[in-house]
Amino acid sequence: MTRIISYILILALINSHTHIRGVSSVLALGANLLCSRLPALTSKQRRMCMRAPDGIVAISEGARLGLLECQAQFRSQRWDCTPAAGTATVFGHVVPVGSREAAYTYAVSAAGASYAVTAACARGNIYSCGCDETKRGRYADAGWKWGGCSADLRYGLRFARRFMDAREVEGDARAVMNLHNNKAGRRAVKKTLLTECKCHGVSGSCTMKTCWRTLPSFSKIGDYLFLRYQKAKLVVPRKSRRRSVPLLTLKRSKRARRPRASHLVFLQKSPNYCEKDLAVGSLGTLGRTCNRTSKGSDGCDLLCCGRGYNTRQYVRKWQCNCKFHWCCFVQCQTCQEEAEEYTCK
Ligand SMILES: *[C@@H]1O[C@H](CO)[C@@H](O)[C@H](O)[C@H]1NC(C)=O
After folding, report:
1. What confidence tens digit (pLDDT) does each residue in 159-184 have?
2. What angle do CA 224, 176, 58 make, to 5 degrees?
3. Which of 303, 284, 297, 300 lies closest to 230, judged by CA?
4. For residue 117, what are the domain limits?
5. Residue nearest to atom 11 of ligand 1 (CA)
6. Which of 101, 32, 34, 111 is closest to 71 using CA atoms?
7. Burial of 222 by CB count in 10 Å (0-12 exposed, 13-18 middle, 19+ buried)?
8. How far apart are CA 155 and CA 53, in angstroms?
9. Is residue 27 part of a domain?
10. Is the distance from the beta carbon of residue 87 to the nearest atom of ligand 1 less than 6 Å?
11. Per-residue CA distances from 249 to 175, 187, 261 (Å)
12. 275 and 295 both lie in a single domain
């Protein structure tokens, strides 16, 4: 299995350190130890890891962001972005088929990596980057001044591109597909970048204003990519006369049109994800919680693929009628109600 997604490995191996003891302790392990713990790296990735272990820590944080966002976006779909179980958890995120879902996975991971590296730069966590100083002190046409710390997206995009794209060494259609979707993911970060401003002047009169570029919440990028996922384009590989790697062109076009850079692209139709079939990246929907009254994708009919569902009765408890007492504690009662849970057969 060469198409393992190495950052999930990174995730599995070092996240425990980053979250329990802080980032610096990972670096204290030394680049050598850190990078040798990541067995799935290509040789280029390993070199990058040795040169910039702090960047690799950010990449692993980005992988976590990407995975969590993917799961949030797909929580009510048959395919819910759950990494396959068993030995595959480490390699979890692999979608073996070149499907629309694989396209989203790559795009959101590439976006997560770019995002996390850029954010780490602004926080001073990476030695060789910081804020984007190129505009600082200049005036925009609207009269305000660039100030504060603008996100150094250029560094973040470049670092993430070099690391993430270095995985695609096969040079086949799937590699070209992955690279295209990685790029679309990075582009999503660029497109969703915000400009934030602050007013200076007597009682907020805004006679002077400074602004800077800042990252949105990552869920905004997840939303943006989810729309792209819904409009993803089926492509076919064609032999390129000039390059050794195949060219992807839109399936439904007469004159071999290329997909746009912003499109997510896929090579194969998705399975229906009803039954478990790990070979096509489907865990099936057996045991998934569904909503009996919903007509949407989370409704029991659709989610359980017509197989029916089990009903479980239970007592739901929660804190309620909370009162704030001066000073300073909160007292709550426990409320409860009978509830039902439905799971796919
Ligand atoms: C189930 O779906 C209905 C209709 O879409 C919605 O109003 C309700 O909040 C959902 N219930 C749960 C538990 O998500």
Report:
1. 999 998 988 888 899 999 999 999 99
2. 55
3. 297
4. 38-283
5. 291
6. 101
7. buried
8. 15
9. no
10. no
11. 14, 20, 12
12. no
Helix, strand, coil abundance in the chain, percent, nearest 5: 40, 20, 40
- Provide CB contacts within 8 A for 28, sequence distance 6+: none
Alpha carbon nearest to ligand 1 atom 4, residue: 294
Which of the listed ranges 14-28, 116-130, 137-151, 240-254 does the model predict with the highest average pLDDT?
Answer: 116-130
Residue bearing tokens 């290329």: 258
> What total number of domains does the chain contain?
2
C-alpha 72 – ligand 1 centre gap (Å)? 16
* Reported pTM: 0.84
Cβ 289 under 6 angstroms from ligand 1: no
Collapse the DSSP code of 93 into the 3-class scheme (helix H, G, I; strand E, B; otherwise coil) and give the result.
coil
Which of 76, 292, 293 most suits a substitution to test ligand 1, by most atoms within 8 Å of the C-beta?
Answer: 293
Phi, psi of 323 (to 5 degrees): -120, 140
Q: Are 300 and 341 in contact (CB under 8 A)?
A: no
Amino acid at 303: L
172 and 88 in a common domain? yes
Residue of the nearest CA to atom 7 in ligand 1? 294
Tell me which of 294, 298, 311, 340 to substitute to probe ligand 1's pocket, judged by most ligand atoms within 8 Å of the beta carbon.
294
Say how far apart CA 205 and CA 199 lie, in whole Å: 7
**Residue 237 lies inside a defined structural domain of this protein:** yes
